[in-house]
User: Fold ABC transporter ATP-binding protein from Pseudonocardia asaccharolytica DSM 44247 = NBRC 16224.
Amino acid sequence: METGVLEVTDLVVRYGRATALDGVSLELAPGEMVALVGPNGAGKSTLVDTLSGIVAPAAGRVVLRGRLAQVPEGRQLFAELSVADNLALGAWRSGRGRAGRDPARVFEVLPDLRPLAGRLAGTLSGGEQQMVAVGRALMADPDILAVDELSLGLAPRVVADLARHLRELNAERDTTVLLIEQNARLAFDLCRRAYVLESGRITASGPCVQLAESPQVARAYFGGT
Ligand code: ATP
Assistant:
């Protein structure tokens, strides 16, 4: 594999005496779209928070070659602010004195956001809010986008629409995507390669077509088939 845009090596994260990540290693090549699947409490959000620098690791190494932006679990928008203001905060949060991305460029990727720009975020549907959360992350002009639970609480049709946008973003704009999902079916559908995280450890990894056929993964994620 060529030099990774993201390299995580033997990462250990503890909350007090509890170990949330126990020696996690993974690597993403530029332009890849890779899934990280795992059940509730496996440590998925902890991993993203560590990549973003929100959580400090007890051991291990994270190498980021480029800028990472996170679409956080639960969207975490400012309900009382307009969509445009929520987007603007994405550029501000990217820091580093850069102007960030023009919302017009985000609307090119997510055209359905444009007519919503003046609406208060709190009045939008769940799917629309998730699109704002993706747009806000894009305002930081990231090289890597980490999307935490894209599908959570959303109708299948809405998820399919968001997934199409992510696929375009990855294929046409070369943004590397780490898709963190409890919904392995969706993740395997979107990505070529995946890691399985269970109880803070990577228990399987490889091409999604192979993982989906492994009895261990099938039992856990595809209802015993
Ligand atoms: P979910 O899908 O439910 O968010 P997850 O795979 O993202 O699950 P994490 O949220 O990363 O998992 O949690 C991993 C483990 O760390 C869990 O046992 C959780 O209870 C614990 N944990 C997470 N955040 C904290 C915290 N701030 N303090 C203490 N323990 C925590």
